Amino acid sequence: MEKLHNLMDKICSFENLYAAYQEAAKGKRYRDEVIAFTQNLEENLIQLQRELMGWYYKVGPYREFYVNFPKSRLVMALGFRDRIVQWAIYRQINPYMDKRFIQHSYGCRKEKGTLAAAECLLNWVQKVSRRPDAGEWVIIKGDISKYFYRVDHEKTLEMYDEITDDLWFMWLMCVIIDNPDIPFGLPPGSSIADCPRKERLYDVGMPIGNLSSQETANIYLDRLDQYCKHVLHVHYYVRYMDDFILLVKGREEAERLFDRIATFLKDDLRLDISPKSKIVPAVQGCEFVGYRVTPHGLRLRKKTTQHIKQSLLYVAGLYADGLIDLDNALQTVNSYYGMTKHCNGANLCKWIEDHYVLCRKSADDVEVVDDSIWVSAYDEEGMVA
Question: How far is 171 from 165, CA to CA, in rounded Å?
Answer without folding.
Answer: 11
